[in-house]
Amino acid sequence: MTSALLVIDMQQGLCTGEWAMHGIDLMLPRVNGLIDRARAAGVPVVLIQHEEAEGDPVHDRAGWQLVDGLHARPDDPRVRKATPDSFYETELGQLLQQRGIDHLAICGLQSDFCIDTTVRRALALGYHVTLASDAHSTMDNDVLPAEQITAHHNWVLERLQAFGTRMEVVPAEAVRFA
């Protein structure tokens, strides 16, 4: 398999201040560890950034920028998206196809929106997916605390095997790059 690491929505507006996701201070080093290991293995790191037409995060404004301390490089491929699906109306599929990628390791934000939707879409498109169980997060909602939301998504996504592809959910340190 040929791998890529998708780093989803690790942006200032979701990692700092009022909208900071649960446990981001513990999660960011895990994401950086994945980035560093991917690069050491020659695996592309694809940085995906969510944007809105107004409010936050608007393209090129402070909240849209990648979070300070993320091990991003200027030459990392970047994908702008406007929905929870990192593939929908973006160049992500073409970028992965051009590189012959068939395995995606995924981390980032938010467990119940962009992570869940992108994982399901990747599986439907035929990618093998590894989700870093401790390198994605969300925030409390009116029904559940963030820790339960993330744990629930780990449990559900690990069981998605009907697509004929491989889905695994493992801690960041156990993610393997082909």
Short characterization:
With 178 residues, the protein is α/β, with parallel strands linked by helices. It has helices spanning 12-15, 24-40, 92-98, 111-124, 146-158, and strands at 3-8, 45-50, 78-81, 103-109, 128-137, 167-170.
What does this protein look like?
With 178 residues, this protein is of the alpha/beta class. It has one domain: 3-Layer(aba) Sandwich (Rossmann fold). The chain is built from five helices and six strands, in the order βααββαβαβαβ. The chain has helices at residues 12-15, 24-40, 92-98, 111-124, 146-158, and strands at residues 3-8, 45-50, 78-81, 103-109, 128-137, 167-170. It has a six-stranded parallel beta sheet. It starts with a strand and ends in an 8-residue tail after the last strand.
Radius of gyration: 15 Å
What's the mean pLDDT score?
Answer: 96
> If strands are numbered along the chain, what order do they take across the biggest sheet?
3-2-1-4-5-6
Form type? globular
Q: How many helices in DSSP terms? A: 5
Classify the fold: give the CATH topology.
Rossmann fold
State the helicity in percent bands: 25-40%
Report the sheet-strand fraction. Answer: 15-25%
Please give the alpha-carbon distance between the first and last residues. Answer: 6 Å
CATH class (first level) name: Alpha Beta
CATH superfamily: Isochorismatase-like
Topology overview:
Layout: E1 3-8, H1 12-15, H2 24-40, E2 45-50, E3 78-81, H3 92-98, E4 103-109, H4 111-124, E5 128-137, H5 146-158, E6 167-170
Parallel strand pairs: 1-2, 1-4, 2-3, 4-5, 5-6
Helix pairs in contact: 4-5
Tags for this model:
single chain; 178 residues; alpha/beta; Rossmann fold; 6-stranded parallel β-sheet; 6 strands; 31% helix; 21% strand
